[in-house]
Design brief:
Elements: H1 6-9, E1 14-16, H2 21-29, E2 35-36, H3 53-72, E3 81-91, E4 94-96, H4 102-112, E5 116-129, E6 132-149, H5 154-162, E7 183-187, H6 190-194, H7 198-210
Parallel strand pairs: 1-2, 1-3
Antiparallel strand pairs: 3-4, 3-5, 5-6, 6-7
Pfam family, one: Maf
Cofactor: a divalent metal cation
Keywords: Hydrolase
């Protein structure tokens, strides 16, 4: 989808406002040239202030992107595009982010057994108007993917947690690695579960650079 634009995108200063190695890998794998500038935005929005989880992740993604935009706006060569993103797991009207410790991870993963939950990722893309970051355009979207876990015993869950894989991931698991062995099925974008909805990103990127 992006191939006709790659020559133009290669001339742009594109910034990923996230330290997530999964998001970095997804974008690298499609050949996009970008730099990583992790956001220092404090992710402390009140979940109860949002009617839907996807509004919560979009607002968090916006906060991340805006913080980086403020820092880089006065660079000798400011960015042409800043990408912010945030991911959560939701089930039973509860939002799950990264586990705080191993016991928290165990409680989270145990609750998924034999059930489906939804992974939401919000993405915000900022572009300056006429190259000036005093004013800019905001493109915001989200994706939701339903994930179904198999039934496994507590010992298997604890041994998975002991690998350390769950501790830096929203919802406490990684579909792209050992956590994928716990999953019996998904409905939606696989890359969204990793933390970045690739197809929707490409679709909106095309719109930004062809409109």
């Amino acid at each position: 989808m992006l191939e006709p634009l790659m020559h133009r995108l290669a001339t742009q200063r594109i910034v990923l406002a996230s330290g997530s190695p999964r998001r970095k890998l997804i974008l690298e794998n499609i050949g996009l040239k970008f730099e990583v500038v992790p956001s220092t935005f404090e992710e402390n929005l009140r979940k109860e202030d949002f009617e839907f989880p996807f509004d919560y992740v979009k607002e968090t993604a916006k906060g991340k992107a805006l913080e980086v935009a403020k820092r880089l706006a006065k660079d000798a060569r400011p960015p042409d595009l800043i990408i912010g993103s945030d991911t959560v797991v939701t089930m039973d009207n509860k939002i799950y982010e990264k586990p705080v410790d191993k016991e928290h991870a165990f409680q989270m993963i145990s609750s998924y057994m034999g059930r489906s939950h939804t992974v939401y990722t919000g993405v915000v893309m900022l572009t300056p108007k006429k190259g000036n970051w005093d004013d800019f355009n905001i493109t915001s979207f989200h994706a939701g993917t339903d994930v179904t876990f198999a039934e496994v015993d507590s010992d298997t869950i604890r041994k998975y947690i002991d690998t350390g894989e769950p501790m830096d991931k929203a919802g406490g698991y990684g579909i792209q690695a050992a956590g994928g062995t716990l999953i019996s099925g998904i409905n939606g974008d696989y890359f969204n579960v990793m933390g970045f909805p690739l197809h929707l990103f490409a679709k909106h990127l095309v719109q930004i650079y062809t409109s």
